[in-house]
Task: inverse folding
């Protein structure tokens, strides 16, 4: 009988949850298009409206301000644009400021010209440098248009929580817009759009146990909105045309409802598993480096370096031992390279790193498997003079 594999890559994607699966199977049985006015169409519309309320409740938003997309990347490309409307009047946004540790979907700058995308540095702990942000915005030429700042709430590699509410004060004092990537935050920490004082939130379904291929852009209101990225039949109040992915959206909604439940208890259990994991790693290899361990992190993420072990080598070695983990972001079609997050933190450019991320279904057996593999790989590295 094949041995059970340990899936420890929840930051890349979470397994589809039972509630989302049930909601999607029911949706597949409904033939209606949500834009149709007959009974079948109204049933589909009711399902989408319910999902909109579920997603809004997860982040403390108004359901009317949730725009469903094909994923977080599309949501980023929709909101990251210099072309806005204030009511019916055009509103210029002249420059995009992004933290140096942002996900590639943000760092690419959406519809901004490359010359108008500015990096904001982070500290050695991987936290946004608020002083640097303030200085950059002080130097911004408001006559050219508003500044926009894009900042993740939780870093996808290190799990470090970013000072979004503090950044919002700086951004809004300069008349700017704040876009918050909350993809890795929802379901792991409490997220409230009002508390964060964010103008826009970016969300992804498959990170919280919903289906892949669905995401959302959540806005503070609808007075100020970006020019649509996809034009057509005017669905989603004209913000994102195209027939809605009804099964995917209701799966997203069901997953959002589950993600909001029992958050403290779930974090306590997952945090205890991670603590045991990291202690075991340090016992097996005293030189292991756990990045971000001295600042606030979400409970599920461990981003670590074994000196002398390359990311590619380590990822393959763990996979052969039956442990699925990653070398950081899973957004680049399987490519493994230097972590831009570690580079931004001032780490050695040759330093490799691996990410273990836990979830609601992670067990003690999974941690045992990870530690057994880690111990074997660390010993092999040591025996080979730490050259891998």
Result:
């Amino acid at each position: 009988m094949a041995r059970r594999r340990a899936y420890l890559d929840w930051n890349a994607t979470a397994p589809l949850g039972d509630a989302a699966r049930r909601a999607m199977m029911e949706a597949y049985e409904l033939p209606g298009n949500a834009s149709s006015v007959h009974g079948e169409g109204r049933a589909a519309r009711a399902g989408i409206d319910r999902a909109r309320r579920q997603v809004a409740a997860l982040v403390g938003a108004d359901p009317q301000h949730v725009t469903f997309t094909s994923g977080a990347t599309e949501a980023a490309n929709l909101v990251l644009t210099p072309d806005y409307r204030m009511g019916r009047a055009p509103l210029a946004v002249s420059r995009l400021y992004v933290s140096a540790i942002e996900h590639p979907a943000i760092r690419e700058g959406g519809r901004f010209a490359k010359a108008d995308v500015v990096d904001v540095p982070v500290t050695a702990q991987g936290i946004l440098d608020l002083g640097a942000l303030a200085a950059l915005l002080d130097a911004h030429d408001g006559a050219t248009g508003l500044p926009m700042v894009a900042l993740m709430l939780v870093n996808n590699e290190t799990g470090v929580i970013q000072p979004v509410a503090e950044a919002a004060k700086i951004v809004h004092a300069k008349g700017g817009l704040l876009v918050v990537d909350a993809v890795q935050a929802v379901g792991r920490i409490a997220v409230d759009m009002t508390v964060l004082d964010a103008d826009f939130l970016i969300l992804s379904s498959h990170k919280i146990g919903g289906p892949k291929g669905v995401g959302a852009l959540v806005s503070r209101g609808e007075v100020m909105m970006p020019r649509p990225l996809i034009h057509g039949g005017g669905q989603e109040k004209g913000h994102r045309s195209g027939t809605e992915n009804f099964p995917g959206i209701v799966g997203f909604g069901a997953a959002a409802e589950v993600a909001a439940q029992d958050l403290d208890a779930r974090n306590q259990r997952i945090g205890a598993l991670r603590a045991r994991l990291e202690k075991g790693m340090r016992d097996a290899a005293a030189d292991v480096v756990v990045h971000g361990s001295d600042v606030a992190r979400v409970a599920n993420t461990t981003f670590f370096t074994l000196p002398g072990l390359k990311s590619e080598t380590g990822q393959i070695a763990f996979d052969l031992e039956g442990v699925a983990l990653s070398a950081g972001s899973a957004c680049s079609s399987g490519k493994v390279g230097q972590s831009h997050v570690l580079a931004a933190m001032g780490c050695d450019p040759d330093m490799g790193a691996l990410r273990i991320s836990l979830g609601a279904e992670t067990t003690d057996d999974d941690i045992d498997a990870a530690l057994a593999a880690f111990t074997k790989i660390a010993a092999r590295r040591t025996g080979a003079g730490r050259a891998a």
In short: DSSP finds twelve helices and 14 strands in the chain. Confidence is low (pLDDT under 50) at residues 384-388. Residues 263-284 form the longest helix (22 residues).
